Amino acid sequence: MTRFFSCLLSVVAIVSWNGTLETVGAKATPPVSVEYSLQKELGYFIGDTVRVSYRFTMPPDMYLREDSLPGKGSHGEWLDVRERSIKESAAANVRTYDLEIVYQLFSAAVNAQIYRIPPFEFSYGPREKTTAYVSRLPAVSVTISPLTSPGDSFKPHVLWSWTSSSSRFVRFAGAALMLTGGAFAAFLFSRRGRKRSHFKGALKRISREQDPAAALVIFRNVLNEKAGRAIFPGNLGDLLYVFPEAKVYEKELLSLVLLSEEMSFNPNSVMQSNGLLGRISETMKKLKRLETWA
């Protein structure tokens, strides 16, 4: 009987020892959290850059493997990584990384659509690289609008045509007069530093429009052309930097850009009978005059 109890105690001891070893040997994945924020929630157009700030928090003995983060270059057909920067800070009980990635979006969107910047895997672990854990950057949803409407396209305009049944001498004389006048005008224009008018052609196109929404698209496009980049309510100063004469109409410009921004996400916000078409046309005339005599 004594021998039986001795064997039983030995079995219990072995089982207990094995259980203890298994519990101690199993390591839980260290906790890591990732949050993100956007520079702005709305107002992105095709080709724009989207600046996303991520914040990682993890135990102080864990380190982010920076080489596991998305690198610069293409990440699919419609997404590029243009810039990437990261800052690290540590406290007694937490290690924090602030990551900023600038994405550029490309897509043939016809209407405003929601796109998802996909999640990306990254790794982290202790200082020695024998152990690593894997987590993910969260997906980021952004609303992208087209720069133009489907019916809004730039087409060359025939400025003039000349046919005449008069004698060759008269035609040559007229041509010489025109060339002389053109050269003189070009000289005056060069003296005044005048450039191609962005607003003249757009004003003609608006005069043929009956839809204020289409006129807003033309108006927004010509501002983008003049500034050399997409103009939004938050960066109207970029337009005024290259076209400082327009500062006298800054309030009206901002109002129309805000209306255009709202229309991108809510096409029904533009009413046909609120005089908007006249406002756009009048503002365009003022900008054309400023550009002509700048």
Plain-language structure description:
The chain has 2 domains: 33-145, Immunoglobulin-like, CATH 2.60.40; 194-293, no CATH class. Helix 3 (198-207) packs antiparallel against helix 7 (276-293), helix 4 (212-227) crosses helix 5 and helix 4 runs parallel beside helix 7 (276-293). The strands form 3 sheets. It has a 5-stranded antiparallel beta sheet, with no helix packed on it. It is an alpha+beta fold and 294 residues long. Helix content is 39%, strand content 22%. The longest helix is centred in the middle third of the chain and has 25 residues, at 168-192. It is elongated. The chain has helices at 2-25, 168-192, 198-207, 212-227, 236-242, 250-265, 276-293; strands at 33-38, 44-45, 49-58, 63-64, 73-74, 79-90, 95-105, 113-117, 121-125, 133-136, 140-145. It is built from 7 helices and 11 strands.
Summarize the structure.
39% of the residues lie in helices and 22% in strands. The protein is of the alpha+beta class and 294 residues long.
Characteristic terms for this protein:
single chain, 2 domains, 39% helix, 11 strands, alpha+beta, three-stranded mixed beta sheet, Immunoglobulin-like
Give the helices and strands, then pairings.
Blueprint: H1 2-25, E1 33-38, E2 44-45, E3 49-58, E4 63-64, E5 73-74, E6 79-90, E7 95-105, E8 113-117, E9 121-125, E10 133-136, E11 140-145, H2 168-192, H3 198-207, H4 212-227, H5 236-242, H6 250-265, H7 276-293
